[in-house]
Design brief:
With 125 residues, the chain is of the alpha+beta class. The chain has helices at 3-17, 20-25, 47-61; strands at 27-35, 43-46, 62-74, 79-90, 95-107, 110-119.
Length: 125
């Protein structure tokens, strides 16, 4: 496993511990962050402050959310893919979850772009 995939794995581990400052520390100052609008926390965000807004939206939408990482791997010089499944309890009511593919672009030891693609069995509400 290359250094870029190791950085992504460490970022997932930080998220799993609830250590969002450690996640943000792995991002470039001008990171581009996007998550589908079909998710309660979805949207397009710019910079570390934008990524923090994403995580604030995540906390506002979900009472609990656990991320199971199935696989992480390098797929190019600067691309890393993560296959994940999220399960939790929405604040708006009840358990929910979804599968996702995360595509990270990593340069100079920092994540410069995050793109999330989801597989929804049913709408998340």
């Amino acid at each position: 496993m290359g250094a870029n995939a190791e950085l992504v794995e460490k970022t997932y581990e930080a998220f799993g511990r609830g250590d969002i400052p450690a996640v943000i520390a792995n991002l470039a100052d001008d990171v581009e962050w996007s998550s589908p609008a079909t998710l309660p926390q979805g949207g397009r965000f710019h910079g570390k402050s934008g990524a923090m807004q994403f995580f604030e939206g995540l906390g506002a939408a979900w009472e609990t959310l656990a991320l199971a990482v199935e696989a992480v791997g390098d797929i190019g010089e600067d691309l890393v893919v993560g296959v994940v499944h999220a399960d939790g309890t929405l604040r708006s009511g009840g358990p929910s979850g979804y599968g996702a593919l995360h595509v990270f672009t990593v340069r100079g030891g920092e994540i410069i772009q995050f793109r999330e693609f989801t597989d929804l069995d049913r709408p998340i509400q």
